[in-house]
Amino acid sequence: MVYTTSAYWQRGENDSALLLQHTRYARTPFVLACVCAAEGEAQAKAGAYLTKQLLQWFQKLPQKRIAKAPGPRLAGLAPGLSAFFQKTDGEIASCGLLPAGDRAQVTGIFCAGPCFLLFHRGSSRIFLMQQNLHGGCVRAIPQKTWGDKTAGSAGEVFLRPGVLQEDVGLLIASQSMVDCIGQEKIGECLDVTQMSGKAQTDRHLRELGRLAQNLGGRHMTAVFLQSGGEEGV
Asked: Judging by beta carbons within 10 Å of its beta carbon (0-12, 13-18, 19+), is residue 171 exposed, middle or buried?
C-alpha cells in the first residue's frame, strides 16, 4: 500500500487549521491528516493548539511496533486517541481559549498501511472516491452511520476504524468549502480514475479550492489522500 497526499489551505484570512504528515517505516506508510475548521479568533487558537498537540502525539508513536501488525495496533490505539482528545479539550478549556462548553472542531484520519482510524467532531465533511462500472464515483461518509465509536456525548470525538482498499480517495474538507461546490463537483474534480501521482492530485485539489473561492467560500481547508498507484509524499 502506498499513499499520495495533498493539502489545500485558502490563502488570506483563514482561521481554520490543517495538519498533514506522511512518513514511512520500512514498507509501511504512515499518514496523519487533520482539518480543524474554524471562524473567529477563539476557534482559530483552539484549532492551532489541537493540531500542534496532535502532531506531537503522532511523532511519539512507536512506528516500528505498529508496522508489525497495523490492524491490531491501531485498534489498540483508539482508546488512547480518545483520551488524548479529552485531555486536549481540558487544556483548551483551562486556558480559556474557548467559552465553557465549546470544543474545537476536528476531523481527520490516521493510517498505518491499509488500516486507519477516522476521527470526527464538528461540521467538516468526509467523502470517499472510488471506481465503479461507470468510472469514478463519490459518496459522503456521514457521522450518524458510525454507531458506537467510543463517543458517549455530543462533545466527544467519534472514532471509526477500518481498512482502505487500493485505488480509492478520501477527502476531508471544511463545511464552508463543501457548501460552495457540492458533492457532484467534488466527484468531478477528484475523480480517482483520472489522477495518478502527487502532481495531479495537488493540481486537482487546488482547482477545487479555486472554484469554491470564486463562489464565495471563506476559511476553507481540505486534505486528500489516494491509496495505491504512484507513490508521492
From this structure: buried
